[in-house]
Amino acid sequence: MNKKLDQIERILIIRLSAIGDVIHALPVAKAVRESYPEAEISWIVESKAQDLVVDNPNLDNVILLPKEEWKAEFKEAKWATLKRAKGFFDELTRKYDFDLALDVHGLFKSGLTAYLSGADRIIGPGDCREGSWLFYDQQVELPDRIHQIDRNLTVAEAIGAESEEVSFDIAVTEEERERVEELLTDLEVNKEQPLVAINPFTSWSSKDWLPDRYALLADRLISKLGCEVVFTGGPGDREGVAEIMELMAQPAYNLAGKTNLKELAEVYNRTDLFIGGDTGPMHLAVAMDTRVIALMGPTTAATHGPYGGQHIVIQPELDCIECWDRVCERNNECMKEISGEEVFNAVREALGSDRNGS
C-alpha cells in the first residue's frame, strides 16, 4: 500500500542523462530537500553526468547506474550481464527501501529504473514517452511550452516539493578550484580583462554556428573589447577548436578536453560571459550564474534556452525554426542567419552590464 506524503522517509530522484537535462533537474533536489528536510534523498544517474550531482548538499546518496558497462558487456556475455543488472537492483531495493520514486526523466529506461528500484510509489511526468507511463502510479499533468526546469519542478510539486528559489547547488571542491587556477595561470590568462568563454560545438550538427564566424567574433572581442577568450568543449571538440583558432589573428586559449565537468563549472564561474549553442555547457554556465548569449536555431528557446531573463537568445525568424532535426536538410540556414555583427553587438550589451544583467 502506498504511504501518505507525510509518511515518506526515503525518496529516489531519477534523471539519468544527459548533461544539460540533469542540470535542468538539479533544482528538484533543493525543492525536495526543503519540503522533506528529514527524508533520505537519493539520486540515480548515469556516469557521464554523475559529477553534476556528487556532493550536492540536498542529497544523501548518489547512485551510479552502470548502463554503459552493461551495454558494453552485453554483446559478449548476455546472460551474465542480465544477472549483474538483476543483482544491482536487488541490492538497491534491499539497501534503500524507497518509499517514493520521482521520475523526472520520463523515458522507458527511467520508468523501468523506477520500477526496479522497488519504490512503493512511482510518480512521473505527463509528457513521458516510450511507454514509461506503464510503470507509474501517478502522472503529473504539465503546461505546454514551459522551460524544462519549470517542467521538472512541476513534477516535484506533485509530492508537495517546492522551493522559493531555483538553485542548482553544483558542488565544486577546493581541489577543483585550484586545478582551474593552475590551468588559467599556466595559460597566462590576463585576469584583469573581461573573460569570455566560447563553446562552439554541440551534439547536433544542426545547432552549430559557423567556425569562421566564431573565429572572427573572437578576434573582434579581443581586439575591439579587450577580452580574453577561452574556448571550451569536450575531448572530441579539441581539434575543431584548434581549427577555429588557426583562422584567428589574435591569441586565444583552448581548454576543450582539459577539464572535467566540475572544473568546467569553475571555469564558467570565473567567466564574465558565455557564448555558444544549445548544449550542456551552456546550461552549466547558467547554473554557475554566468551570463549567456545563446545562439539557437532548431530547438525551442522557451523550453530549452538559458533559464532566466538576464540571458540573451539570438534566434532568427524562419519558417523552419524549432524543427528539432539533429541533422539539417536545409543546409543549416537558421544558424547561417545569425550574423557576426548581431552576436558582437549582443556581447557589447552584455559586457556593458553586470553579471546579473541589471
From TrEMBL:
- Recorded GO CC terms: cytosol
Asked whether the UniProt record includes Glycosyltransferase among its keywords, one would answer yes
InterPro entries named in the record: Glyco_trans_9 (IPR002201), LPS_LOS_Heptosyltrfase (IPR051199)
List the GO biological process terms. Answer: lipopolysaccharide core region biosynthetic process
Domain of life, source organism: Bacteria
GO terms for MF: ADP-heptose-lipopolysaccharide heptosyltransferase activity
- Please tell me whether the keyword Transferase is annotated for this protein: yes
Q: Which UniProt keywords apply?
A: Glycosyltransferase, Transferase
Query: What is the name listed in the Swiss-Prot or TrEMBL entry for this protein?
Result: Glycosyl transferase family 9
Q: Where is the signal peptide?
A: none
* Pfam families for the chain: Glyco_transf_9
